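Colleagues,

Please find the record for the two-part complex below.
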Amino acid sequence: MVPLILLIAIIAGVLSIAAAIYFTIIVMKKDRGNEKMIEVSGYIETGAKHFLWVQYLVLAVFVGVLFLIILLFLPSEMTGHEIPILSSIGLNWHQALAYLIGSAASMFAGWLGLIVGVKTNTRAAWGVTKSVKEGFDIAFFGGSVMGLAVVGVALLGVGGIYWIFVPALTVEWGATIATAYATKVVLGFSFGASTIALFMKCGGGIFTKTADVGADLVGKAEYNLPEDDVRNPATIADNVGDNVGDIAGMGSDLLDSYVASIVAAMILGTTFGILGFEIYFVILPILVAAVGLVASLIGIFLVKWLGRENPGKALNLGTYLATLIVAVFIAILIWILTSQIPDSSEKLWRDYFAIVIGLASGIIIGWTSDYFTREDKPPTKNIALAAEEGHAVTILSGFSYGLISVVPPALGIIVAMAVAFMLDGVFGVALAAVGMLSIVGTIVSNDAFGPIVDNSRAIAEQGGLGEDVIRNADMLDAAGNTAKAITKGFAIGSANLTVLALLFSFAQEIEEITGTAINMNLLDIKILIGAFIGVVIPALFSALLILSVQKNAAKMVLEIRRQFEEKPGILEGTEPADFNRTIAIATKGALVELILPSIISFTVPVIVGLIFGVAALGAFLAGAILSGFVFAIMMSNAGGAWDNAKKWIEDGNLGGKGTETHKAAITGDTVGDPFKDTSGPSINTLLVVMSLTSSVFMGLMLAVGANGLIGDLLGPEEYINNPIAIGTILLVLLCVVLAGILLWAIMKIIKHPKVMEKIAKKKD
Amino acid sequence: MVPLILLIAIIAGVLSIAAAIYFTIIVMKKDRGNEKMIEVSGYIETGAKHFLWVQYLVLAVFVGVLFLIILLFLPSEMTGHEIPILSSIGLNWHQALAYLIGSAASMFAGWLGLIVGVKTNTRAAWGVTKSVKEGFDIAFFGGSVMGLAVVGVALLGVGGIYWIFVPALTVEWGATIATAYATKVVLGFSFGASTIALFMKCGGGIFTKTADVGADLVGKAEYNLPEDDVRNPATIADNVGDNVGDIAGMGSDLLDSYVASIVAAMILGTTFGILGFEIYFVILPILVAAVGLVASLIGIFLVKWLGRENPGKALNLGTYLATLIVAVFIAILIWILTSQIPDSSEKLWRDYFAIVIGLASGIIIGWTSDYFTREDKPPTKNIALAAEEGHAVTILSGFSYGLISVVPPALGIIVAMAVAFMLDGVFGVALAAVGMLSIVGTIVSNDAFGPIVDNSRAIAEQGGLGEDVIRNADMLDAAGNTAKAITKGFAIGSANLTVLALLFSFAQEIEEITGTAINMNLLDIKILIGAFIGVVIPALFSALLILSVQKNAAKMVLEIRRQFEEKPGILEGTEPADFNRTIAIATKGALVELILPSIISFTVPVIVGLIFGVAALGAFLAGAILSGFVFAIMMSNAGGAWDNAKKWIEDGNLGGKGTETHKAAITGDTVGDPFKDTSGPSINTLLVVMSLTSSVFMGLMLAVGANGLIGDLLGPEEYINNPIAIGTILLVLLCVVLAGILLWAIMKIIKHPKVMEKIAKKKD
């Protein structure tokens, strides 16, 4: 039976959704401001909906294909080592359905957060006319909806699946198998959330920078329009992009890590618990998450209360307080659990400290990102000084500091991992990841605050609310940026620890199915090859995303120029710019350019596993995790530092705006834009997707043979291979071909101008 | 006994040195041109000698310290698993002496190559006044001296050590131990060559870019002086830099890989040979190298003969022909060996194909580098087109293509490694590395040709030889650049395969000493941590080198400005610029900035091994090799592509010189300069040094315990640890402290202005 204590998760999940709806209602009741503001805000909302609509349309097809693959072709791992195709249609059905539900849950959270976000901006702007505090509250409540929705759907999904499956199956199979079965189903849920995250994060990242770079290059540079000027046809797309990238993208990314960390810990909990009480250790991660949610809720109210003084400080202080509260709450949880499980005191308290280590290291990694990107610290200041020597030196300096900034968080992860391992082995490492992510509600809320106040500022300007209001809106905007520095580092650190935990759970599952411990010995050529391919993939993935942004931005530039040339009235303010077309370009570009990176994310792990075997696949994941960490941190921090170096110069330092130094700093910032907002943070999602793909498709690979097609030739035989299941391979090939045709068709459809117009019309 | 066939190595080595001296004499007999040319060439020679003098002074101290450490504190691995300190002073002495000899040999090759190189430039320039062919011949012969010296000292060193030790020790210990012993001594030789390579390559890289960037930023940009104008105080330093970086640096780097690949294959040959005939497999790598040298010599004469038509084509065609010849020669060698070893036919022919795979993949990797950096191919063209959109887009585009360019050579290495492994296990992989490097004589010769003709062009300009001669000198310069694209990719690929072979030989040695096979299972936390640190190191190392260039270039800029301000006569051409000061700045800067990266290279592997154990150290090396490969290729190719994109624009495309597009392309090129000439290629040397450090200091780590100080806490105990040798640790600490004090003192001395002046004076 499921311990009653799991009810906390369901209650917390319901509470979270309820709070999200409550905050939504509060925000919606607020005044939308003057007519101009409502108009601009309306454009942004329409744009965001357009993006979501098209994105979800494509995702529906993509998710459908993956649903079918999971349903039809994935041999279940539950039936033991001999894996006939379609033998256990039960698990396939359940996992596939959970996949659909996971996707839908992530889509729902993204939709709710994004729509509330874009409805909040004008209200927050109007709020600022009353007081900074009022504006802050509205924006913060609006942002919290995303944070709460993320945590809510995660807890309800994972907790719900347990509640449905475990009691029903325990009767027939006993608690152990029932728990393991439910964990597999949850894996499907997690995979669903990940699929969405990949599209939202990468697609959002490409969208936002396409619009941003396009708007800057033509509007600002060629026509000298100020930031957020409605005459710039890309300005609305730029505002939409902020929401799409930082609310929907970041939210779905953290949801993805959050669920994955819980799943990894649950899988390890089935093995590394206390005999007879495994289920408590399986649900421990869910409980920690639930307790974390309650702490996050308290944190949200604390931030609102603290916000009176200094908004920027309030957001970060709120995070620290939420961390402290969650640490205390989890201690209480552990204390309760020790009373339920005999002789569990030592193990549970070790687990507690593993969780706390995770929590603490998340904060520390956030700090180091903050240090490397803050304008009052040496790295960013040196980059600003380098701008005095020209464009090239600015780039070299930022790139170098970005690389150096990898060292402290790497040490943070290493120490956290080592200590957590010493405390309770790989289960400890997985719990550290869960601990780090337990305050995700607070983190996502703080992060979503950023684009809302950024948009508020734009709307305040366009609504003509006067200089005082704009200055106050600027203050909120700055607070959003301060919070963002920490949340970005946090997101990368937590994703990294999560995928490490997933790596261990992956190995654990293989050991359970095959009965042989997996050995990822780098001296085996196949393992080394796996690791080699893994190390290269994040580099390739980043490069593809950066080139995508560059390609789309070039199209955007042409469109903006076209509008200015064909309708001279736009520049004079007598004719409205055509925002729909720029938004359509950004949307379409983001989706088309996603095809290749997403195919890489889903197919390369399967191909590596099929060719070189599961152990090589594990090494592939490890290689990708390590090199992905280096690239993600480097790009994120270099981008942040360039951005702030530019801002510091714009504040009047080193000659200020308009100087050659400023121009060099702008070059740094423009290089940094896709680094920090597209490719850097997308690597997280790539890693989670590849890890989950490996776990979900493991059964398929084991059916072909644990050593892969040619693994035997490249090192010792670790496993007794099944005779290669030719049928499976044929089915897989069929699948791949089908999926390829479908994706190609989708691409064609999206690329077709008529379809795009129809979609655009339908939305109007 | 040593098989008589080893005589080939000695003969080839002597032949090589003899040919180097013969070419030197030929070149020296040529006319030095007019007075102005002799003057300029004299400045360059003095500068190069100054750099060498200071560099070798510091190296003498550094090598001395490492000599003492090897001599006094390295417990020998030959005495079995129980390793008392100083027990086998014999091996320590021999290894330490071999270390000194290896260093001296590398210094000699570097000195000879560099001095002949800088004496050749004016002669080649004068040769061009007669015919392009005459100029080509002189420059090519001058460059060949470096190539031949490298191969000669390597063969004489490695072959000589065998000849000295094996017969003498076989009597007492039998052939097997004698061979193993001699192999250890050769390891010392290789480590010596590596120490020099690290300083020459990184130091040369920093020097050359300090001078280049400094000369460009002030001379060209601020004062509009043309390239190579003697009024520019940094112009001589710039010319010196080309020699220092591309002759001495590249030569010592390839010498380092060359010797290391031979050593790795020899170590593996002791185990993976045919019972009773191991010695043939131990010397097989030396024989392959010797045969390769003969092929290279023939290649050199072929290039001279082919050079009549098209110098650029001649260099590359020469490389391909040398490759073919070496493949044929090695086939003959193998055929001879099959007659000497009974039942060896299958194994030896498998080995042959492993060697050929290495050879072929070296060429293929060179081609892919060529593709990604050639102006008539899409990547470079796209980067040039991106320059139309400004500085930032140029950077993003080059960076992305650089990352994408990692994929083909990575696949090349993976396929070569896999096929070689299938042919003859890890010995096959090591032989592939030896095979790839067998044509190193040709490669280094082609590479050294570049800076010589670059300098010739400068001297022709300054000597007033007229437009026709300059145009012809330009043609030779272009030929040098074409050859360089292939040699750079080749250098990275071969270093990568070499360090992979070193990784296997490292593991093999540990297995022999401890009797336990090493397991670098990435699921062990300590292994994962080792790999994590390894992946981060090349990133950190690159960043430090780039920042060094930036820092030194800033000093150079100040000095040039100072000279122009204090002595206005310089600009008018009435007063000579003070070249010595700029050269001193570049030299001093290069050495000071080397301290931190070189400490990292030598100490991090030892620290990782001592703390986490030897298996984690192996994973550290693997992580560093894989991520180092990504960074090295990315930086090298991005830098090359930016360079050529700029040249393509300067050829009149996209508006040509002086446009905004051109300025953006210059930014790309300036970012690319330290990428392709400092940090990118230095990563090779870093990897070889770290691998050899691990092998040399292995005994020390094993004395402390194969699991390291805390490895037991982080994974299964793979070994029965010796009780931790506290004495050893204390000694090591003492060593580290001593070495630290010494390095600090060296730094102080170098930094002291008076010392620098004295050094400068002494040279005059």
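The CA atoms of residues 44 and 236 of chain A lie 6 Å apart.

Comments are welcome before we finalize the supplementary table.
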